[in-house]
Amino acid sequence: xxxxxLVKDRYRLLEEIGSGGGGTVWRAFDEELQRTVAVKRALSxxxxxxxxRVGWLRREGTILARFSHPNVVxxxxxxxxxxxxxxxxxHISASDLAEQGVLQPHRAARLGADLAGALxxxxxxxxxxxxxxxxxxxxxxxxxxxxxxxxxSRVVHGDVTLTESALxxxxxxxxxxxxxxxxxxxxxxxxxxxxATLFAAVExxxxxxxxxxxxxxxxxxxxxxxxxxxxxxxxxxxLAALLRVNPAKRPTAAEAKRMLxxxxxxxxxxxxQPWRWALVAAAVVAVxxxxxxxxxxxxxxxxxxxxxxxxxxxxxxxxxAELARFGEARLEPEYGNFTRCDVIVRSGASEVDVQVxxxxxxxxxxxxxxxxISGIDVVRNPPEAEACERxxxxxxxxxxxxxxxxxxxxADLCGMADAATATAAGALASGVLPPRAEPAPSSLINVDACxxxxxxxxxRFPGVDxxxxxxxxxxxxxxxxxxTSPLALRLLFDRNQPLNADxxxxxxxxxxxxxxxxDDESCAVxxxxxxxxxxxxxxxAELVQVIVTGARPQDQLCELATSLAEPTAAGLPKP
Length: 575
Known about the structure:
Blueprint: E1 6-7, E2 11-20, E3 23-30, E4 35-41, H1 50-64, E5 75-81, E6 84-90, E7 95-96, H2 105-124, E8 137-139, E9 145-147, H3 177-180, H4 187-203, H5 214-223, H6 236-242, H7 253-272, H8 277-289, E10 303-304, E11 307-308, H9 320-323, E12 328-332, E13 340-347, E14 350-360, E15 370-373, E16 376-380, E17 387-394, E18 397-405, H10 413-430, H11 455-458, E19 470-471, E20 477-481, E21 488-496, E22 505-509, E23 512-519, E24 522-533, E25 539-549, H12 554-570
């Protein structure tokens, strides 16, 4: 090939603009339509797999030529001449994403929405891109992202491409774990690569680290060793969804586009209205696993340091063996809500509950100096007489580690809290937490607490602000305030041993058994959702607690809580 050569008596080659294992790309001039184009030439006919590659290129060109999408580089023509195969493409005078430097999260989210739209269109035509990465994303002069696939190898930071003689196709720094293990690329793996590309855009390196060794990056990809983002802001929960190791749990390209559009809108609002940031972040989290995702029966997902709390096992944040030096330590994975995991430490008359749980991000960090442990900022909360607590500050949420005295003997509560904190910080810093055991289909883990009460049910709560529920982490709790009185309503999921009359006054709520338990300025109705056998073989129950608080007589609080428990029970899935 040479400058000035005419291809198919029409396309005059001007300059080579890229080359790689798949061939070469030239800027050319279409003398018939008087416009600049890009022409991609397949490998030389004397190459070993030329026929196969021409077949791939021909099929891709034929399919992509069926439609025009503003975020896909357009295919104009296929040219075959002298035993050589050329794909004629739209020429874009633009830089690629790898040349843009580190971007602000809202800017990366906006470009990501463009790319997700492109993948949606490509996937609808049955095409899998196979190699989404910063070098294949062109940014036009107007700031629009266009997806390209020129097969150009660019030796840049975190963008080392495997040679075509390798067994795998793609770029290790952006390759989905299942593809790295030898599976065929799919639409789901394209979505992962989109997430990896956006991760690199805001962090400066890909999710598998900054190694220039493709085999090391491939190893990280195969093991699903994904780093936690540090600078992603409102984009962090979206990245967590796109970068899920399990391809079945990733959003589709269409769903990813909607999530990224929301993240792009949320980020600037943080600077303009700081006091609303918690609500904006919660809205972005709700996008991830709410009605916009394929798994619509699951509650709004939350992320902790880029980890999806629905998928991640909280017990991976605590190690009973590390606490054994304080006494007999026993893991209790089914205490309370799905946000937590506990270790019970017994020594003599002392019994301490060491708990690690995912928690909501508050308006600001708790008071106190933050120290870094394994790269995670940790605030040591002031100790109390029977409890000691630590707060790990991670993107989008908090992780709370606490040690609480349940017995009467002496115990080093803060020593236990510090030991458990070190374990949790190390696990979070790794960016990869083992998955939970597969829950039962009817488990409350798959339910959104804010969706249990419809408008008619909430109407029983006087002055309710029905449009402003306050969801908890994972959607496993929800709170409403009254606008006309100092009343509050909270739904809280719980796990416990089967209840009896010692747990409150029995009451029948349709198909469910309930127990009414008054307390100071509150009343809770515990609704039994389902009974099951726990991991230790003992009988367990999943519950919804309907809790009403306020300065009213207990009988009025319990009457209101019972009234609200009826539609709550009716909204539960069949066990």
